[in-house]
Amino acid sequence: MTPPAALPLEEPTVAERAITLPRPALTPEDAARSRDRFRVHNARKHNRRWYLIWLLVGPGILAMLGENDGPSMISYATTGATYGLGFFLPFILVTFAMAIVCQEMAMRVGAVTHRGFGQLVLERFGRMWGWFAAGDLIVTNLVTLVAEFVAIRVGLSFFHLGAGVAALLGVVLVVFTLSGGRYWRWERIVLGMAIFNGLFLLAAILTKPHWGSVGHSLLTASPFPGGSFNTLLLLVASTIGATVTPWMIFFQQSASADKGLTPSDLRHGRYDTVAGGILAALFGCGALIAGAALFGHGGAGFAPTRGLAGAGFPGALKLVSGNAVATLFALGLIEAGAVAILTISASTGYAVGECLGVAHSFNNSAGKARLFYGANIGAAAIAAAIILIPGAPLLSIALNANVLATVLLPVALVFLIMLANDRELMGKWANRTATNTAALAIVAFISICGAAYGIDSFLQTVHII
Amino acid sequence: MTEAERQELVMFLERDQLVVDTSQPVQRLRFSPTMKIALWALRVFVLVVSAMVIYTFVSQLGH
């Protein structure tokens, strides 16, 4: 490795740093991160813009495409099958715009403080609030992970493969990506898999939708869905839960710190987040448009859709749009579930490691970060075991996972806003007024939607309304 | 790893990015009474709505 010959003017020279800095202890984690930073430094020095983007993208795209997960895609497809094109198509775009605002804050806090969300909440606000946040995360992550295995099972069942294969595939993937002891390796493998989220867009194109209707829906947000108010609330809450969730905040902040992002990378971190948001919105709209092919055929109530406890979209699409669309949708569900298992398990590992104050980086070997790796694999293994239980209410879990995430999200969001406004931590990179206005509006909107569904459903269940 | 290699590697990291630095906890923030009340209100609100969602979910399983 050759030290840099010339550094940007505002930074001290190598010699100055070597002289002025005392020599700190350098762990293997530091060494691995430093090698990644060396490449970033060289790309900047030689003005290799595209290479620099390639090096710095990752956490944003993974958070966004990771959230285009199995239950989210089933939720979008259910919405399309139930209501057709209309209000929900532009609503997906709105929710991803909300996600970009939240995830940019998470990336910025991670890059500036070099600490994960769980660690900062615990240290800055106290152990109780830290463990509350981690507790929320672990509960929603376990439920969501079960839903991811359900999605893989739904996709595999189209190819006549059973729950055992789904469980094994998920756990083996987690173990495989964890081997290597490098954040960079883990990130690139998962990014390579996440690109296949585009299969939903391909499936949508092959259903030959009426593009004029798609454009009309996007421009006018109409027709507004009718029917049951509670079903509408459920789909609004689950659509929000399909785009902004607690695990995304934990993941992107921790991954940004683990990747080694610094304040000088904020611009590229924003590119990464916005690119992730745009891709995820496109692919999410693809799932809705593909599901809308069933709209004229009885929608989500269409008999084949109810296969495998109600989530047999690939089978239903095969009858309506052909085998190619069904195959793409099934493969898309497998990919969506698999990528989400990896990112959600990672966020669980980060949260556990940060809150217990032990090593929590992919740049550590398994021996150095036993709890981090153990939580990663353990979370996936527990969820895998649940889908093997005969008669487990898998579809109900899948649909309610997003709703639960929506309900628990406001607490994590409020902490994130507080951290992003903390000038002692963030200095000149603290939130500006416009970001705060948008973020607080998002918290209010999500709280109202989650509460509206929760209260309305509860009152109906206890027969008060 | 030699001392020279170690020094080269350190140069590419920010000082507060090293594990030895991030392992030091940041200073605890003291909440004002108003902030404490607001946070507890939010926490209770979220738990109550979560309980409603879970109750509904469990009830639907029975049907």
Would you kindly provide a written description of the structure presented here, covering whatever features stand out?
The complex is a heterodimer of chains A (465) and B (63). Chain A has 465 residues and is mainly alpha-helical. Helix content of chain A is 75%, strand content 0%. Chain A contains 22 helices and no strands. Chain A is globular, with a radius of gyration of 22 Å. The model of chain A is unreliable at 1-9, 13-19 and 303-310 (pLDDT under 50). Chain B is mainly α. Chain B has three helices and no strands. Chain B has helices at residues 3-11, 19-22, 33-62. Chains A and B meet through helix 1, helix 2, helix 7, helix 8 and helix 20 of A and helix 1, helix 2 and helix 3 of B.
Sum up the structure in keywords.
heterodimer, A: 465 residues, mainly alpha, 22 helices, 75% helix, disordered N terminus, B: 63 residues, 3 helices, elongated
| Coarse morphology of chain A | globular
Total number of beta strands of chain A: 0
What is the count of helical runs of chain A?
Answer: 22
- State the secondary-structure class of chain B: mainly alpha
Largest sheet of chain B: none
Helix-residue proportion of chain A: over 70%
